[in-house]
Amino acid sequence: MTGAGRGAQAPRPTPDRMHAPLGFGLGLRPAHYAAILDSDPAVDWFEVITENYLVGGGRPLDFLDRIRARYPVVMHGVSLSIGSTAPLDLDYLAGVRALAARCEPAWVSDHLCWTGVHGLNLHDLLPLPYTAEALDHVAPRIERVQEFLGRPLVVENVSSYVAYADSAMSEWEFLSALVARTGCRLLLDVNNVYVSARNHGFEPRDFLDGVPAGAVQQFHLAGHLDLGTHVIDTHDAPVREEVWDLYAHALRRFGPVSTLLERDDHIPPLGELVAELDRARAIARVALSAAA
Amino acid sequence: MRLAELQDAVQRHVLDGGAPPAALAAAVLPPAGERLGIYAEAYRLRLAEALATQFPALAARAGSEPFAALARAFIAATPSVHRSLRDYGAGLGAWLAAGAADEEQALRAELAEFEWRLAAAFDAAPGAAAGPADLATVAPQDWPALRFRAVPSLQRLATTTPAVAAWRAHRDASGASPAATRGARVEWLIVRPALETQFRSLPGDEAGALDRLLAGASFGELCAELAARAPDPGAAALQAALWLKGWLQEGALERV
Questions:
Q1: Domain that holds residue A104
Q2: B47 touches chain A (CB under 8 A)
Q3: ipTM of this model?
Q4: Would you state the pLDDT for residue A7?
């Protein structure tokens, strides 16, 4: 896989084609701001949590501007709540659009989930029932967001702990239908696939094999907590072996897709994450050469 | 179950507990109700972490378990309406003040409000602060008509306890946080001229004058009001000019 390289400016995407792979990136976290600017680490791109920069100014935006001047970035939201039955929050979307105009991300992503109704936010990524009703609800909302932002939305699969009695299709069938109806892209969180597969008893490779290959814009990798009877998506530890194995399978199926390592708690020094990212690079080299 | 009903039932369970919604698919280990409990627990943990992040001096002053109890009570009383966790906690100072039964609780309420205002200044929009040089070309006859407004980062508040000293003790890790007492009202000005947030106390008459400008009075109106109350009207106008110069040097005001 060839990354865009340090110092490269991400070209603006067009709605009609997939963005070229960016290589291997890290989630941008405040604990690493200074180290990034001091050391220019061997990271091809950074993913920023959109909501952390929906502010008027100050130090966070200053750091973002300075890091954006050196690296491509992608915006990753957690509060779009595309699956909620509450109305879309146009003020929030206007903020997302303004931030995108400022930092020119390669793409903008959020999750296939709902985060609250009745004006409240549970600050969690709650799964949807995979029903025709939910599909008819979410698809036009994605189209409206894409129209508002003027770019395709990249939609991520979530980790889930509950399922619903009414679900009539698998999560990957639901995602595939959304891609077909809206032209949205997919952010495949490989760890989330593993976590949900363990929690709901499906085969994780069925998920990966069940989504349209041409729609996958990005991978996520992260750590989880295995409690035996179920698995919690914690983002507080290195990627586990079973997820690396699944990642290799994903690479063989989807090719050199932009890969992002996430860590949100117990954040180690930047160098440790760069080393873990190097493992992703090594796995990709092997997987992609075998696939070729 | 319709999607809207399902989401309403799940959210009510996360916020208020009770029997698991019927919409959940049956699960063996762990059972469905326990699985939904993962979301309920995560909701409270995330908000508690957000409060600890926004109010580190309050957390240190209160101590670990009392702060956790305070956070639990506030979270139960105040569901999040925010898209970003960083916006959660806006009402904590007022909420604590409403229930303050002694001087320590009053100090904690003011400490919370002070930390919240610092955070608001921290990531406010930069604005277009006027500097003293911007007024250098204003003709003397035009000064009375000058009007100003606050830069976006400007915060005004008052304390009657040593809350700011407690904040400083936490920042400096001095370990000498002051005893809680009620004292004279102290006015504060917080402003972030570039990237560093600054604050200082304001003498009462200066605070009153600044608040008049921020409320829309022209410089001339301010001078007239000060002169009406002063034994020496000329000295009052000079004082107003000196204050204005100081506020402009601090980057606190924009021209209207």
A1: 24-291
A2: yes
A3: 0.91
A4: 39
